[in-house]
Write a structure and sequence with these properties.
With 338 residues, the protein is α/β, with parallel strands linked by helices. The protein has 10 helices and 13 strands. The protein has a single domain, classed as 3-Layer(aba) Sandwich (UDP-N-acetylmuramoyl-L-alanine:D-glutamate ligase), CATH 3.40.1190.20.
Length: 338
Amino acid sequence: MTRARLDLRRLERIVKRFSEVRLLVVGDVILDEYLWGDVERISPEAPVPVVHVSRESTVLGGAGNVARNVVAMGGECTFCAVVGDDPAGRRVLDLLKDLGVDPNGLVVLEGRPTTRKTRVVARSQQVVRFDRETDSEIPRSATRELLEIIEGALPSCDAAVIEDYGKGMLTRGFLNAAMKRLRGAEIPVAVDPKNEPSFAKGASLCKPNLREIEQLTGIAVRSPEDMVRAVAALRRKVGPADVVVTRGGEGMTVFEGKNAPVEVRTAPREVFDVQGAGDTTIAALVLARSAGASLHEAAVIANAAAGIVVSKIGTATASPSELLEALPETIAAARGMH
């Protein structure tokens, strides 16, 4: 697609069609906990700040943040993940209910901790993070339950997103079986590969960031030619998928089919927190594709969504009204007018 064909009214119609889309989100769920406060002094016990905590909050992170973003942008979501039989797991269940997402897609495993990331934030700055988790592989009994959930979701979903955060849920056996079922039902699958891309064979879309594609292919990307070589190497592992490489404030590079790569620049934004921006991006990309967008158009919409969430603190989302408001500036940036 050429820059001239980016049409504001068409992109607005695509965003409004998000409400007609249902996505299946599969992957590692994380409970993001926040302690919010202020720093007034340094501790007399050690050279560390003393944070006076004024409030606490919890939100869904990891694959759960993809689900949050799907719902926030107007779509519907079926969610499939593993939690422990613990208070954090029960909190994940409650947060899904609050979203309007059926929590029956959760498989509860006794003796396994729910992944928790606890962040202390003072004056808009993250002071420290505590992680409580395991990356041990889930048992085969859990794999069977997860596959039953996926099979039940196939008739009603338009596309699937697989989110790998390396927490042990997405075992090779489970992924191979899940991909086989999704391909058999002709469900487009988008993956966000962070460790091993080979499970994504048959996926329709891969969305690594710049650091991830370098790690996955062993190719340092220092030029557009390097990017082309890295994407070719990735495709040798996953098959002829479309590839979107996110590059932070530089936007995205889009590889659609055999077409030449397209640089999709984004509007400059004041960045407060990049946490969760990748989750927002893949949710927006797949919603837009399912609503009829080309990959170039979907990338512009995803740039708008990511720009919104990085201007917020914490694991954030973008609403349809925020997206519609951000589109004109984002389209101008994609056309090279910024």
